[in-house]
Write a structure and sequence with these properties.
Blueprint (H helix, E strand, L loop, with lengths): L4 H35 L5 H66 L8
Helix pairs in contact: 1-2
Organism: Paenibacillus pinisoli
Protein name: WXG100 family type VII secretion target
């Protein structure tokens, strides 16, 4: 059983959608940060802003990782499919050569002409 490239692409698309959803959350978080800073003035805001900035950086990293993972899934699925196709062609060629060799051997022992025209 070979790799299911369609399924791999579907999974990669889902991961890309998750990254997009996280970007939306990140944008909302930045908007909330701006609104909080406008409405609330205190010494504690320094720590709130630091926490929100850290969360923003983490979300950016996760989005990048998800995008990279999605791209890797598609590329690896294609690569595996190509390797499987090459292995299938090699097996077919090997089987053809073995059949020709058997036919030549049979021809030499029986004196009959090979069905392969050899």
């Amino acid at each position: 059983m070979g790799i299911n490239v369609v399924q791999a692409n579907s999974q990669a698309s889902s991961i890309s959608r998750y990254a997009s959803d996280l970007r939306g959350i990140k944008s909302s978080l930045l908007q909330y940060k701006s609104e909080i800073n406008s409405a609330w003035q205190s010494r504690e805001m320094k720590y709130v802003n630091q926490a929100l900035d850290k969360l923003n950086i983490e979300l950016s990293t996760i989005c990048s990782d998800l995008d990279s993972l999605s791209s890797d899934i598609v590329a690896v699925a294609r690569e595996i499919q190509q390797e499987e196709e090459a292995a299938r062609r090699a097996a077919e060629e090997r089987a053809r050569l073995e059949a020709e060799a058997r036919a030549r051997q049979q021809q030499s022992t029986t004196g009959k002409k090979s069905p392969f025209g050899l």
